Amino acid sequence: MRKIIVYNIISLDGYHTGPGNDVSVMFPVMGGKAFNGYNAELLRTADTFIAGRVSHELFHGYWPKVAENPDSDEWTDEQREIIQESESVSNIVVSDTLTGNRPNYRIIRRADVYQQLAELKRQPGKDILITGSRTLWNDLLAHDLVDEIHLMIGNIVLGEGVPVFVGKPPASLHLIEVRTWKDSDNVLIRYEVLHKSA
C-alpha cells in the first residue's frame, strides 16, 4: 500500500508559522541545502503531491518562477532539482472554494477527501506527499490516513504563532530516523504513524 508522508519545517518551539499564519517568519530556516535538498529527495520517491488551497496558492506563487528560468543564478541546485522532480508528480488540491477545470492539478472537495485518499493509497504507485497544509494533514492524521510525519526543526524560536499540531491528535508515533547536516543547524526527525488497525 502506498504511504502518505507529511513533511514540514517547524520552529524549535513547535510552531508551524507565525502569528496570523505568517509563513515568512520561517524563511530564515528554509534556505540552504538541508530544507530544499530534502524536498527534492522526497519528490524522487513520490508520484503525487497534495496541498490545501492556502499552501497551493503559496507554492503556485513561487515555484513557477523557478521553472520559467531554471538556469538563473537566482536559484540553487536543490531548487532546480525540485522543479525537475516535480515534472513527474501529479498534483491534488483539497478545496471547497476552487472551481473549474484545472489542467495541472485535480481538485478534491473536503467531504470526499477521506474516501478518495484511502482509495488512492490502495492503488499501485509511489509515495504521496503533503507539505505545508497543516489543517489538512492534521485532519488526515486524526482519520488514520497519514503513514509518516517528517519534521525538520529549524534553529529559530518564535514564541508565538500557529502550532504544528491541532490539539492532541489520536496517533501513536514510532521514531525511525534523526538526521543532521554538517552545513545546517536544522534537524530532521522522521516518525512512522502506528495505525489503529495494525
UniProtKB/TrEMBL annotation:
<feature type="domain" description="Bacterial bifunctional deaminase-reductase C-terminal">
    <location>
        <begin position="2"/>
        <end position="188"/>
    </location>
</feature>
<protein>
    <submittedName>
        <fullName>Pyrimidine reductase</fullName>
    </submittedName>
</protein>
<dbReference type="Pfam" id="PF01872">
    <property type="entry name" value="RibD_C"/>
</dbReference>
<dbReference type="InterPro" id="IPR050765">
    <property type="entry name" value="Riboflavin_Biosynth_HTPR"/>
</dbReference>
<dbReference type="InterPro" id="IPR002734">
    <property type="entry name" value="RibDG_C"/>
</dbReference>
<dbReference type="InterPro" id="IPR024072">
    <property type="entry name" value="DHFR-like_dom_sf"/>
</dbReference>
